[in-house]
Every structure is written in C-alpha cells, then in structure tokens.
Amino acid sequence: MVLKIINATEAKVGTNIIVDGMPCTIKKIDISKTGKHGHAKCRIECSGIITDAKKVFVIPGHDRLEIPLVEKRKGQVLSVGEKVSLMDLENFETIEVECPEEIKAELAENDNVEYWDVEGEKIIKRKV
User: Fold this and answer.
1) Residues 6 or more apart from 87 whose CB is under 8 A from it?
2) Per CATH, which fold does 2-68 belong to?
C-alpha cells in the first residue's frame, strides 16, 4: 500500500521511499540543474529500512517516487529467541518480530522497544 507519491526533486534527506520493492531511507541526494534542452537529474543514495542494503541510482527529476507507510509503535519483550516475541502496548497483540543482532544482545524480558511496521513487515529499531 502506497501512502503518497512525490517527484524526485521534492525528496529530501531522511525521506522514506520504495526502491525495487524495498523500503529505503534517503541518506544523500544531489540534484543537477536543468540544461538548455534537458531535464534535472537526481542522484540518490539510500539504505534499506529492513535490511540496511545500500542503493545508489540516478533518475530524471520529474520521475515519481513512492513513499511507504511506516508505523512506529512500542512493545514489550516477552521472550528472546531466534525471533523476538513482543506484546504491542496499545492493543496488547502478541507478535513475532525480526531483530538485528546488535539490538538483540541488549534485550531481556520485560524491556520496552520501539518497532516499525513498514508495509506489513515488522522490525525492532531500538530499545526504549
């Protein structure tokens, strides 16, 4: 589900976009000026929200970029295993969530965390 669509020249550093079906955050953007008969070009460097994969691409300034729906929620850790079991603090739903190894090392039962729901995929971002 796409929340919004913007032109490439409207994108700023920190904007979340969808690149090749993967949600990413823009880390750097360079916009060239238009030529006498040409269009502006945008060179975008971004990293994945879920996988931290780096992408660099160049597109015309009038091309459209999709903005994903990102929900930031809070949860309480129930158990830590291969996946982390969380209870959402708003609706008390229990879910299994992926977690990066560096965050998983800090977690214990009853800790509060912030997790993101990005287009249906959930990932723990930080310990609160």
Assistant:
1) 75, 76, 78, 93, 94, 95
2) SH3 type barrels. (2.30.30)
What residues does each domain of the chain span? 2-68, 70-127
Q: What is the pTM of this model?
A: 0.81
Strands (E), 2-128: 2-7, 16-19, 22-31, 41-48, 54-60, 64-68, 70-80, 84-88, 94-97, 112-118, 121-127
Give per-residue pLDDT as tens, 104-113.
888 889 899 9
Tell me, what amino acid is at 79? Answer: S
CATH class of segment(s) 70-127: mainly beta
Please write the tens of the pLDDT for every residue from 39-98.
Answer: 899 999 999 998 889 999 999 989 999 999 999 999 999 999 888 999 999 999 999 988
Please answer whether residues 8 and 60 qualify as being in contact, where contact means their C-beta atoms are separated by less than 8 angstroms. yes
